[in-house]
Design a protein that fits this description.
CATH topology of the largest domain: polyphosphate kinase like
Structural class: alpha/beta
Number of helices: 17
CATH class of the largest domain: Alpha Beta
Shape: globular
Strand content: 15-25%
Radius of gyration: 28 Å
Largest sheet: 10 strands, mixed
CATH architecture of the largest domain: 2-Layer Sandwich
CATH superfamily of the largest domain: Polyphosphate kinase middle domain
Distance between the termini: 4 Å
Length: 751
């Protein structure tokens, strides 16, 4: 999106006003930051200044965070159930649903179990529920979700796949030729890597890794008395083995698959010579996977996290998934050894870990997939050699994945090779397995530039990857910083210092998404490139704060957590509230992943009561209850779940009567306590008039007009399809943006 060109706004809802330019002053100063004994910067906790609503809401005015997240995951499951999507895309959504649920148990349920075991220590949820009551409600909802998940697989997706010639076989359904092939596959590919583990007095119950596949086998010796105790053994299945095996030979035109568990159960007898297999059942244990690190006691944060990663596999069990039909004695034995009560056990009538169905999407059936989409690279930055010339003339805003991520990579690579560039500073939260950004940073260091990388080691489930890259960067001479005590560095910033004439000039990239080319093709995010001195000075100040010492850093344009972000968001909401109370136009638009912070929610309630129109696009967790008379009747909440993961955080405040007109921001922060107070976050202003028009007219305009992927949140907690006039075709914002990108690629026009 070039600043020089705006898009037509013919489809913009009439209630969205036009934009101009705007500025935001600095936020309040918080107590000084200073070093600890190890020389690391410690940021004092930011103080929240709540905005009291006219009538204080009671606990019924908030949705429970955990149940709201489960409602989001149900919307993911609905994509698997919907025939609007191609068949293999529905399989992919089912796999994503399964993966989401795994992480929910590993982190959220694990934390609640620990809180309950510690005697309900800690704060109650925003709706006042204690840990035990939340766990009870979670179990009820999850049980329903899992039932629907397997109904979707067995009742919808498997039959539909069979009609398309993609078949799943059980051992009993194999022909003689197929049976011979499967048995040979077991002998050559599976048997050599399996290790049977007996369970008896001389063989203690083994440690089972988190989310690993295991088979429990019940045996009988020849001549054993009926009803006697049956020997039991475990077969841990290595992760390296594919869970979905394509059968060869298959019938003409057919693609036949069998689950690895069925192969192992069929051939398990070969591992126990002299015994007869009475039964075999697959099971899987989910463990607490959060890291527990006292950073102030950790002299070497990198080594401490490496140690914790090794300990993670030994976390307490929080869920057992097991195939239905397992004998009661074996079931009881497993629960006792895992110290799990029955409410954390799920008996499944189908294959375990449906995430493994993701590999099915690799088959060559384009007719069962979405039409391919290639991001376009027709922005003003499509010529890497002219990036800095372009940015001196105007800001550039990209909308991923519709706009290619390549200019972000080019920005760093060009800086690495440009002789005029003296320094390069970069945050890294989640990077790809073979990151071109990391390679460019190493190249820049080898080229003699001063390079600093702030690597967040505690990016959940990416810790091992980030440790690997941190070590490689250090070996290449990059100054690697591991973040600040007590705070994750979640902001997305890149800064280039370049000599131009007698002085130095700064260039910056600020984003809402990670520096990861892979996820940039799947997540919707914004990238702002700028050479504006006021913005780049704040970015330079931010990096100095993160890497050195800073007493009460002041940011003139950026909203930075934990320094001024919470205060400024509340002040911006309060300004709209005051305008509405004075009879002036007032409007708030916000697009984000999660809305949890109670103080912000109360401020939005107060705004609604004062007459502010509030429209929220919240993809995931939303603890705000919309549409309640006298409380939130002017607040509307919708969620978009579609082909791409909606990930951008963007905020609009009408600011009637203020200098410059409406205020528009984007950045890395959701409206959650962790983002406001426990993370380093950056929210940046969008100043250029053409770019501001695009945000209001196109981004908000199209997503608020979506009637295909949008679901509206109601006061009872239900998400229902957005209503549209009879005879009006469904409108998809994501399809609109893909089509618009295709048109730009054909015409070569910039956005």
């Amino acid at each position: 999106m070039a600043a020089q060109r705006s898009r037509p706004s013919s489809q913009l809802p009439a209630s969205v006003p036009s934009t101009g330019s705007g500025r935001v002053g600095s936020g309040p100063v918080i107590p000084a930051a200073g070093p600890d004994a190890a020389g690391r910067v410690i940021i004092p906790a930011a103080r929240a200044h709540p905005v009291a609503p006219p009538a204080k809401p009671d606990k019924a005015a908030y949705f429970n965070r955990e149940l709201s997240w489960l409602a989001f995951n149900r919307r993911v499951l609905e994509q698997a159930q919907s025939e609007r999507h191609p068949l293999l895309e529905r399989v992919k959504f089912l796999a994503i649903f399964s993966s989401n649920l795994d992480e929910f148990f590993e982190i959220r349920v694990a934390g609640l179990i620990q809180q309950a075991d510690d005697g309900e220590v800690g704060e109650a949820s925003i709706d006042g529920l204690g840990a035990r009551e939340q766990l009870r409600r979670i179990h009820s909802v999850v049980a329903s979700l899992v039932e629907d998940q397997y109904k979707c697989w067995h009742g919808q997706l498997m039959p539909a796949l069979a009609r398309e010639g993609v078949l799943f076989r059980t051992a009993k359904e194999l022909t003689a030729a197929e049976l011979a092939w499967v048995e040979n596959y077991f002998r050559e590919q599976v048997y050599p890597v399996l290790t049977p583990l007996a369970l008896d007095q001389s063989h203690p119950f083994p440690l089972l890794g988190n989310k690993t596949l295991n088979i429990v086998v019940s045996l009988a010796a020849p001549g054993a008395a009926a009803g006697g105790a049956a020997p039991v053994a475990l077969l841990p299945v290595p992760r390296i083995l594919p869970r979905l095996v394509r059968i060869e030979p298959a019938g003409a035109g057919a693609q036949q698959f069998i689950f690895l568990t069925d192969i192992i159960k069929l051939c398990a007898g070969t591992l126990f010579p002299g015994y007869r297999v009475r039964g075999a059942h697959a099971f899987r244990v989910t463990r607490n996977s959060d890291l527990y690190i006292d950073e102030e006691e950790a002299e070497n944060l990198l080594k401490k996290i490496e140690d914790e990663l090794r300990n993670r596999r030994r976390g307490a069990a929080v869920r057992l998934e097991i195939e239905d039909g397992v004998p009661d004695a074996i079931f009881t034995t497993l629960c006792e050894h895992l110290a799990l009560s029955h409410e954390y056990v799920f008996r499944l009538g189908g294959p375990l870990n449906l995430l493994r169905l993701m590999s099915l999407c690799d088959i060559d059936r384009p007719d069962l997939k979405n039409l391919p989409f290639t991001p376009v690279n027709v922005s003003p930055l499509h010529e890497p050699a002219r990036i800095f010339d372009t940015l001196r003339a105007s800001d550039v805003l990209l909308h991923h994945p519709y706009d290619a991520f390549q200019p972000v990579v080019d920005f760093v690579e060009q800086a690495a090779r440009d002789p005029a560039v003296f320094a390069l500073k970069q945050t890294l939260y989640r990077t790809s397995g073979d990151s071109p950004v990391v390679r460019a940073l190493m190249e820049a260091s080898r080229n003699g530039k001063q390079v600093t990388a702030l690597v967040e080691l505690k990016a959940r489930f990416d810790e091992a990857n980030n440790i690997q890259w941190a070590k490689q960067l250090e070996e290449a001479g990059v100054h690697v910083v591991y973040g600040l005590v007590g705070h994750k560095t979640h902001c997305k910033c890149s800064l280039v210092v370049r000599r131009e004439g007698p002085g130095l000039r700064h260039y910056a990239h600020l984003g809402t998404g990670n520096y990861n080319p892979g996820t940039a093709r799947l997540y919707t995010d914004l990238s702002l490139f700028t050479a504006r001195a006021d913005l780049t000075a704040d970015v330079a100040n931010l990096f100095n704060t993160l890497t050195g010492y800073s007493r009460a850093p002041v940011f003139m344009r950026l909203l930075v957590a934990p320094f001024n972000l919470h205060e400024r968001i509340l002040a911006l909401i309060s300004r709209e509230t005051a305008n509405a109370a004075a009879g002036r136009p007032a409007r708030i638009l916000a697009k984000l992943n999660s809305l949890v912070d109670k103080t912000v929610i109360d401020a939005l309630y107060a705004a609604s009561q004062a007459g502010v129109t509030v429209e929220l696009i919240v993809r995931g967790i939303c603890c705000l209850v919309p549409g309640v008379r006298g409380l939130s009747e002017r607040i509307r909440v919708r969620s978009l779940v579609g082909r791409f993961l909606e990930h951008a955080r963007v905020f609009y405040f009408q600011n009637d009567g203020g200098d410059g007109g409406p205020l528009i921001y984007a950045g890395s922060a959701d409206w959650m306590p962790r983002n406001f107070f426990r993370r380093i976050e950056v929210v940046f202003p969008v100043d250029d008039p053409a770019l501001r028009r695009w945000v209001t007219d196109e981004l908000f305009g199209m997503e608020l007009a979506d009637t295909e992927n949008a679901r509206e949140l109601h006061a009872d907690g239900g998400y229902l399809p957005v209503t549209r006039a009879d005879g009006t075709p469904a409108f998809s914002a994501q399809n609109y943006f893909m089509a618009a990108a295709g048109q730009r690629a054909l015409s070569g026009a910039e956005l």
